[in-house]
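Standup notes
- HV: blocked on the assembly model, inputs below
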Amino acid sequence: MRVVCISAECEPWAKTGGLGDVVDALARAVACGSDQEAGAEQVVQSQVWVGTGGVMGQAPGGVSPCVDRPVDVFLPRYRGVSVPNDASVTPLSVPDPHAAGGVTEVKLVEFEARGYRVRLVDHPPAFDRDGYYGDDDGDFADNGWRFGLLCRAALEALLAEDRPLDVLHLHDWQAMPAALMRDIFYSDKPRIFDAAVVVTIHNLAYQGWLSREQLAGIATVAEISKMVGPHADGLLLLREGIKRAELVNTVSPGYAAEVLTPAFGLGMDKVLRGLGHRFGGIINGLDTALWDPGTDSALPASYSRADLSGKATCRRALLSEVGFDPDDERAVLGMIGRLDPQKGFDLLTGAAKDLLVEGGRLVVLGTGDPKLVAELEALASKRPDAVAVSERFDRALARRIYAGSDLFVMPSRFEPCGQGQMIALRYGTPAIVHRTGGLADTVVDADAFPDEGTGFVFETPTVAALLEACRRAMSHYHAGGIAWAELQDRGMAIDWSWEAGPAEQYAATYRRAVSLRREP
Ligand code: GLC
């Protein structure tokens, strides 16, 4: 089985958000060994596709989650990406209607890393810029050309190689031109045309609209007419990818169920419903070696499920670091992420005053919406003993917040999967979340399910509902004792690793996609 990922992000070469983490971890998890054909179809049928939401089964024991080495990951070479000295550099001519003469010369910069093969498409006019997707004026107008070039270069490189290709795994709209191109430009090239396409949607809010003019960056006039017909204004890349893929998934069963409804589907619900069992959700794994309070070098003390005493040290250190009284026992609520309405930061600012009155304290780390930042900073300057805001990107501080907080808040309005809540539980910090998408799949309310609870879940994304959940959480925290210790312990006991389920589910997805593509 040969799997090729195309993505706009992959940690550590390119990352702005969860997409980068997930593509890297997924590539590592599935590129780990020999293929396992036996029983694959059965696994697929019973375990993977839960298109209507609900509970995901455990991966059955004994089935390897691995596809055969190597997994390739194609990425743009953005500004500032450092590459190892022994990387190979190969020139490649890429068909490009945008270029004089119809061809653009790019370089492929390639190396083995972290168990998979990184293949950077190097073309400075397209990728050597300050941002990945846009700048202060918004999205780059030539994104269709840029990501079209990424995809076309990947397909040309694969075409030129004497190796079979089984699956093109395309992540988010930036990789969708590859699905279009497979069908339109390569119908007489079996190596590409016979490859199965698996599309993973990390966030349906970004759909990649290209006007007719922008499409000219990836195809000629005649080819555009073939794609969109003679009259359409343009196309949505994500919709094209969805329609052409053998299998489509989102990054949690909960979000998969939500996006089938008009309220969350953002115009894409109908085409997704039309896929039936070819659409479903696979929860992202977490790199449990990278996120482990027992080995985390950013923490002042390590701790584990068996011995949580180091967590108290982390708490005191965090409180001192942000200027709070380290001996004060009142609850500390942590929140990390993009300060924007999707993540529900406005709900937190709305609830903050009441939370402070009730004795809660807030430690916030993130960047984003200047208005939200200003509101939080105003609160912090009035109540430096109880509100701390760090407006920056700081991986080490994030780790100290996961470890040192008493509760972790994630009130996202929608959340395809989310990673913060998993990390918080693993670090013994119960999470307060809105019941949506991946958050609903990963956190169990401790009042509704006293024996299974791992956090506190609220139903509607309103200030009042968040506040009520925080009150419940703080009262459990202050009651302390065995019930609190058990709540922490249940969260820490969960195995979020790729190997515990998601890697196998992707491997099975690849096998099923291949058999769908090869069906007579
Ligand atoms: C996007 C989603 C997030 C998800 C991540 C990785 O960033 O917003 O919920 O965890 O992709 O799949």
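- HV (later): unblocked. The mean pLDDT is 91. Residues 357 and 386 are 10 Å apart (CA to CA).
- Next: hand off to the docking folks.
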